[in-house]
């Protein structure tokens, strides 16, 4: 991204009252972030959800001055900046309505692959959780997944350490800017992972790791991956918020079950009990449910004896050719909105030509 456009995207990101959702609307309406600041307010008021009070901040010249200082930090520290409009923006995040308009990265991060999983949980991980997590990594390492977590104490840092140990790419999503590492105790891991993975955030330099930032950070942890795994959690905790966000994004959620008397199994057991997470017992379970062992089979054209609409035929032929696929991938590759694809898939299921599978997959019968 050129410096001038970056300046205006940063300014828009920092403009009070706008936020990521409205920032995307404004950029898409005007064609660029720079054009947003040059457009007449009465024209911007035509955008759904953008009222006059939200546009006041666009007249604040201090915002552009702050953006100029942030660009200085970006260049000085060789920070990679990725806009939601660019090709290398994380694929899964593109489908999240509240995903950041900008991401700041340090390290060697490659988010092109599909096998991305987020692993989160309590800061007070027990021996039971540690033992399971170590076994999980030994079982899934052969699939070479990318591991996402939050660099926090407990489950998060152990997930990063095990990823480094198994030579897997790992990314820490931070609740602050790239001018620091929090907790400072995890500085060593933060440096190590930058050789195969790295640090990612949507917060500017100088941002403190405040409580609300961790909650905001969780939307990236949940949205950037194919599935979220909760290792251990008390009845209330940040990892349960991440699980809820992942569910809202229509992503798979898995939870490690535990004894009903164990404090740090209560959150996971409740997720399973309320059908907010699938029970996870092994790496083999995860590979099966996420379809990692899928093999391509020869496509054999079937003779259908039911009538299909034009869009139904498109989805049926797509699944016939590609095999098992998730709802969001089907929508993406057929240029159809998710709500419409969901309805079409239900019609195809009722007509007896496709069926739903574990892991929110669909396949031709």
Produce a short descriptive summary.
The protein is of the alpha/beta class and 365 residues long. It has helices at 3-14, 19-30, 33-38, 41-44, 52-55, 61-76, 127-140, 155-165, 187-192, 211-223, 238-248, 266-273, 283-289, 310-322, 327-333, 338-350, and strands at residues 80-83, 102-108, 116-120, 146-149, 170-173, 197-201, 227-230, 252-255, 278-279, 325-326, 354-357, 361-364.
Descriptive report:
- It contains 16 helices and 12 strands.
- Helix 8 links the parallel strand 4 (146-149) and strand 5 (170-173).
- Residues 295-301 have low confidence and may be disordered.
- The strands form 2 sheets. A 9-stranded mixed β-sheet has the order 1-2-6-5-4-3-7-8-9, with helices on both faces. A 3-stranded antiparallel β-sheet has the order 10-12-11.
- The chain has helices at 3-14, 19-30, 33-38, 41-44, 52-55, 61-76, 127-140, 155-165, 187-192, 211-223, 238-248, 266-273, 283-289, 310-322, 327-333, 338-350; strands spanning 80-83, 102-108, 116-120, 146-149, 170-173, 197-201, 227-230, 252-255, 278-279, 325-326, 354-357, 361-364.
- It has 3 domains: 3-76, DNA polymerase, domain 1 (Orthogonal Bundle), CATH 1.10.150; 108-289, Rossmann fold, CATH 3.40.50.450; 310-364, Winged helix-like DNA-binding domain superfamily/Winged helix DNA-binding domain (Arc Repressor Mutant, subunit A, Orthogonal Bundle).
- It is an alpha/beta fold and 365 residues long.
């Amino acid at each position: 991204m050129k410096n001038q456009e970056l300046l205006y995207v940063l300014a828009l990101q920092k403009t009070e009252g706008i936020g990521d959702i409205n920032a995307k609307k404004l950029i898409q309406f005007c064609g660029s972030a720079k054009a947003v600041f040059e457009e007449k307010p009465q024209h911007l008021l035509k955008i759904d959800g953008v009222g006059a009070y939200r546009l006041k901040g666009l007249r604040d010249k201090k915002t552009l001055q702050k953006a100029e200082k942030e660009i200085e930090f970006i260049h000085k520290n060789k920070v990679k900046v990725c806009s939601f409009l660019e090709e290398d923006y994380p694929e899964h995040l593109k489908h999240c309505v509240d995903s950041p308009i900008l991401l700041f990265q340090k390290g060697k991060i490659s988010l092109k692959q599909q096998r991305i999983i987020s692993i989160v949980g309590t800061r007070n991980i027990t021996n039971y959780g540690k033992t399971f997590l170590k076994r999980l990594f030994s079982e899934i390492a052969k699939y070479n997944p990318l591991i996402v977590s939050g660099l926090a104490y407990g489950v998060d840092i152990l997930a990063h350490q095990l990823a480094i140990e198994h030579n897997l790419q790992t990314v820490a999503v931070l609740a602050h800017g790239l001018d620091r590492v929090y907790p400072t105790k995890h500085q060593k891991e933060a440096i190590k992972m930058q050789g195969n993975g790295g640090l990612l955030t949507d917060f500017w330099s100088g941002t403190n790791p405040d409580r609300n930032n961790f909650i905001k950070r969780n939307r990236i942890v949940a949205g950037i991956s194919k599935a979220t795994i909760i290792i251990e959690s008390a009845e209330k905790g940040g990892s349960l918020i991440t699980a809820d966000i992942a569910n809202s994004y229509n992503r798979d959620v898995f939870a490690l079950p535990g004894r009903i008397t164990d404090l740090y199994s209560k959150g996971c057991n409740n997720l399973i009990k309320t059908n907010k997470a699938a029970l996870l017992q092994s790496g083999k379970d995860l590979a099966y449910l996420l379809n990692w062992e899928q093999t391509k089979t020869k496509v054999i054209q079937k003779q259908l004896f039911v009538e299909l609409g034009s869009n139904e035929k498109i989805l049926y032929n797509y699944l016939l050719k590609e095999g098992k696929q998730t709802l969001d991938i089907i929508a993406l590759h057929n240029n159809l909105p998710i709500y419409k694809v969901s309805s079409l898939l239900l019609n195809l299921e009722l007509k007896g030509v496709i069926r739903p599978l574990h892991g929110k997959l669909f396949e031709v019968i």
